[in-house]
Amino acid sequence: MTPKNIIILGSARSGTSMVAGTFFGKGYYMGSDLYAGTISNPKGFFESWDINSLNEHLLAQVVPRRPSLFFGKWFFRMRPIIGHVGLSARIPIGTPIPCPDKIKQKIRKNIGKIPFCFKDPRFSYTLPVWQPFLENVIFICVFRDPATTVASILKLCKDLTVLKSLRMNHKIAFEVWSLQYRHILETHRHKGDWIFIHYNQVFTKDGLDRIERLVGTKINRDFPDLSLNRSKPIYPAPVEAQRAYEQLCALAGYSEDGEEADPRAGEGGCPRGAPRSTATTTAGSTLPCACRPHGLPSVSVRHGPRQRCPTNGALDRPHSNLLWSEYGESGNA
Prior knowledge:
alpha/beta, Rossmann fold, two-stranded antiparallel sheet, 8% strand, 6 strands
């Protein structure tokens, strides 16, 4: 069976890096310059400069542009930060995203290296631009409960200097989370082959079996690391976010009460017969299901000198170096 090309998407801090890591070293092209790990995500992001910069430029066409330097930092804090637009962009459903010819050329160049595995949370918005160019591809949507995801996003914005000028609170974060998954649920998923997988399911044999079966290749089952489960929910999810989360769980065959949601064996997050509120992981330990999981960050945020990642050997490249001039000025005033 020929391995499928892979696009991994979902909200930041939802486990997309963990899923992407299971494909690292398995013959997939993931980009020419992968970001190295950080303290918040020590095993790496498995995102490339090539792909992220394309998606950043696509999003810049439909979100307000933040002025540079002091003026933007203090008077336009609600506007996304260049290099991190996907973290805070709130793009309404149905918003068309243009694709300039220069970006089309870049997309064709990157997808020409097969099989590829591209991971970027920004795909949650930009996927319709890429879809016409993609062949033999499977889309993997990774998610976890919105309350835990939002707690992790807020911690990220608090801890990282480059994000301190971004006005982020739990209401904005929940809105971003809801919009990203609504784009996936209402628009993207109706075209192509999809896998929906809950963060918890990645720690189970059944979840990893399902990925291998549908993708058509063996993955690195030892990569998911339960010890990196660190975030805890602080604010309850609003109705819209909870509704989207329930849809995602249904598509993934996942139930937080520890019972199999999908009637087909092996499709759910908890193996049949596992005690209520726990699931047996691939490492033999137990993972709480009903208490809502923590998770891995999945937005590259490394800045400063380039360093080599101890896990994947990739050289880090700061996100702040996006070359806007390569594609021309874009974005709304």
